Amino acid sequence: MPGRRAFLGRTGAGLAGLLLSPGLLESCAPGSARAHIRGSLRGANQATGHKLWNPTKLPAPSRTIQTGIIIVGGGVAGLSAKRWLERHGRPDVLLLELDEQVGGNSAAGRNGVSAYPWGAHYLPVPDPRNHELLEFLREAGTVTGFAPDGQPIYNEYHLCLDPEERLHINGHWQTGLVPEMGVPAADRQQIARFFALIEEMRQAKGQDGLDAFVIPLDHSSTDEQFRQLDALTFADYLTGQGFTSPYLRWYLDYCCKDDYGTTAAQTSAWAGIHYFAARKGQAHNATSADVLTWPQGNGFLVENLRQQAAEGIMTHTLAYAVHETPTGVEVLAYDAATHETLRITAPQVLLATPQFVTRRLLKDVPGLIQPRQPLHHTPWVVANLTVDGLPQGPGAPLSWDNVLYGSPSVGYVNANQQELQLGNQQKVITYYWPLTDEAPEAARRRAYKTTYDEWLQRILAELEKAHTGITARVQQADVWVWGHGMVAPAPGTLWHAERQQMALPLRNKLFFAHTDLSGMSIFEEGFYQGIRAARQILSGV
Amino acid sequence: MGNEPVLPPPARGRRAAATSADHLPALLLGSVFVIATCGLIYELIAGTLASYLLGDSVTQFSTIIGAYLFSMGIGSWLSRYLDGALLKWFIRLEILVGLVGGFSAPLLFVLFEYVSSFRLILYSLVGLTGILVGLEIPLLMRILENRYEFKDLVSRVFTFDYIGALLASLIFPLVLVPQLGLIRTSLFFGALNVVVAAVALYRFPETRPYRRSFSGIMVVALVLLAVGFGYAERIMSYTETLAFQDQVIYSKSTVYQRIVLTRNNRELRLFLNGNLQFSSADEYRYHEALVHPAMQALPRAKRVLVLGGGDGLAVRELLKYPQLESIRLVDLDAGMTALFQHNAMLLALNKGALLSPKVQVINGDAYQWVRRDTTRYDLLVIDFPDPSNYSIGKLYSTSFYRELDKLLAPNGLMVVQSTSPYVAQKSFWCISHTLQAAGFHTIPYHTYVPSFGEWGYVLAGRNGHWRGDGPLPAGLRYLTPGTLKEMLHFPPDMAEVPTEINQLNNQVLVRYFEDDWGPYTH
């Protein structure tokens, strides 16, 4: 699914969070077949966030706070940086987050039936060479130890419970997401050839001896024969390789949408291959195909990052300007709860915010590196539906990830998948829908104008195709519109000098960390970006 | 269509013949609507029933629809051989359709358990109904041919035909199946066909000569259909009893499962969702083998936890050890434990075990329970249903066994009912290997239970200290030190095979179980 590792995106939720605060906007139209459904449209509380665009209307600073390091943005990158700084002797960190909660794209909710994700909801079993990530997972209780051969042992309640995936195709639920039911032999051959190619890419090393595709992606080989793949779209690459099967192409489109919020035609070929070829997880009790998941999705990871980062987090706080001073920086921040403006000074600031926010905050600061081409963020719609049963067609039983062949959505996950008890009919399902039909800007504008009832109608119409009668079983449905879901790894955005330069500090005062700097929005990249920036701060580069 | 007059003037020469019944064509068009609805309903019933009983709804629906439409074609072709008093033919036909179509659902339900070739019966009935229904429209068109101009006749008849079809296809899934059920729907529409016949009989003057005799037939047909309607519940439960060899003496659907108790001269049998749980004739073999190999090795045991086993039969065996101070039984289904606490016949069987003051019955989810419980038990008796689906498969995983490890006293033992090592060799050994992966020493054993076949158990402990020479309680009917020794021996057809470990994230056991038992159930 989407939020999958994906979604992690809004690492620096600092200001982007403006688009996300929940706000109850409307409930269902009476008299329709959906009249019994309770729920509301959430997200898009732009009121606080939009103050950034017009900071002159904010009150003048009423007091000044001094601190060691300011972090703007409490998404995964910001939290990861804070955690790293604290455990390396820097407790004097103040993190500013616009939202009422930290976590960015890993937001989560809870009702009487289950906790559920609002965004990113899983982490593939990591590459064991990613020591920092493994150490974090050990502290979170997800890694419970190491086998004699050094392989991590995972907490089995955190590994996605079987059955993991199913696909609704030709009126039937099949096991697994790669189309099989009723797929002609010629298409099956292409699918097999594609996975053989991926296996080759997984093993591939560049002339520098480094793996061609790794997470974090900055550790990948610099060899041009692989990096040049960033110049073309994944769709063109596939066509060039003779992968024309509509079943295969649907599947790969689905994968790109799921992880990046983009179609194969909007995705860099390097990123498209990276999705598969960088999965190098190993474990004593799991395989590279396994994923870690929790009822609240990656909200679990964020909560652990937050706990490990202890004190010093101000939520509901909008940083709206960053200035350099002779001794460091000053950040002007508006506290939406007390309606007062603070001047916060520190020798250093880390901007864990998406590019469009960073540029706004630093509009008076010289020397900021621009990306070679503008970055785009696909809008997403996520809906959590509480059902008292799921009318089920023929085939495989309810799984964690349930995908509908040919749907514009990327399907739904069962938030109750990790539940162990028997016979509980009530469930929460989380439906993910990247809005890829239009350019991100147009899709975003349209999404903000769409009413709760329209969303609900469209989502239920999709679900009814595989679950006839589900509408009557829905008790509650909340819909969240993410204006800027995840950064799109479009062709040409990954391998150019500017992307790496954007991550370099300016004058040892301004530091940067966000998945925008990776070019793809997955948890591991946000986590890595935070540590990378924290190390720059600690080493005084 | 445009400007054509809606009702063309009837041909003059014929007018006299039609005068007595000017409204009658409209009546017949109304019948088109009714019979079209009925016709499609019979088709839907056959398709649905075939899907219910035979599975694979796509194939069933598609072949039923094909066979039905083809039979209608045969009916249409046959209609040319009907001559003479067409209205009389039509009335006969409607009564016949009413009976054949009306009784199709109850007949198929009942016959399903009796006949070896159900498909033959199914398609014969579909074919017969199709032929009769196929005769209807051509016959009606011929009756009406002199009352309308041809283009209007065709237009009207088919309009009503298709509207009827639409109505049927909508009310069938939305109203009829949920409200009436298949059997009542079928009988109800049969009655409608007969009513069409009755209306035609009484409204057309030319039927006078045979009104009396036909009235009698119709009354009989309607009474039969009405009786069937009234007995629909019984027919349903009768078909359930047919699914079991013996007489059903108790059946109840709880939140979790359908409990059915059957009896014959010799034995009482309990079925959960159609799967045999025990037969009173030989359950002592199963339960003695479940409990005593572990208990005879635990002379100082005081506390026991039983998971599953809501029938109280394992507890009955445990109560033969006076040193036990408390037995806690956790079973999901309160309906099950209540039945075995109150029904006299069942109390005789479990000797009132669940009413003993030493026994505490908890209705709850076993996995949730073991994660919360902090008691240390000397023995854990794990008596769950076989791992036939992912929900139950979790209760056979490394994670679950590690939770149990926390509840086990230092020298405690645990015994797990482990399906048949003969039928499900891989499943059985997978359970043993999974227990080993969770850190236990295992002692697999098996016994023969006539109503089940060869059955397996795995005894598990933290060390390999188990011995089979402890004292057994008096009065056992099966287990002796000698039988115990034999139970440990696995002949080659049940011998240990390599398997994967059953984990929550792979659930290999459920797949093994499907593969192992699949050939026996399909």
TrEMBL record, chain A:
PROSITE patterns: TAT. Pfam families: NAD_binding_8. It comes from the Bacteria. Transmembrane segments: none annotated. Gene3D superfamilies: FAD/NAD(P)-binding domain. This is FAD-dependent oxidoreductase.
UniProtKB/TrEMBL annotation, chain B:
Pathway: Amine and polyamine biosynthesis; spermidine biosynthesis; spermidine from putrescine: step 1/1. InterPro entries: MFS_trans_sf, PABS, PABS_CS, SAM-dependent_MTases_sf, Spermi_synthase. It is a multi-pass membrane protein. It is an enzyme of class 2 (transferase). It holds the Pfam family Spermine_synth. Spermidine binds at residues 287, 311. One of its GO terms (molecular function) is spermidine synthase activity. The chain crosses the membrane at residues 24-45, 57-78, 90-114, 120-141, 153-176, 182-202, 214-232. Catalyzes the irreversible transfer of a propylamine group from the amino donor S-adenosylmethioninamine (decarboxy-AdoMet) to putrescine (1,4-diaminobutane) to yield spermidine. PANTHER family: THERMOSPERMINE SYNTHASE ACAULIS5 (PTHR43317:SF1). Keywords: Cell membrane, Membrane, Polyamine biosynthesis, Spermidine biosynthesis, Transferase, Transmembrane, Transmembrane helix. PROSITE patterns: PABS_1, PABS_2. Its EC number is 2.5.1.16. HAMAP family: Spermidine_synth. It is found in: Cell membrane. Belongs to the spermidine/spermine synthase family. Residues 229-462 form the PABS domain. This is Polyamine aminopropyltransferase. It catalyses: S-adenosyl 3-(methylsulfanyl)propylamine + putrescine = S-methyl-5'-thioadenosine + spermidine + H(+). S-methyl-5'-thioadenosine binds at residues 257, 331, 365-366.
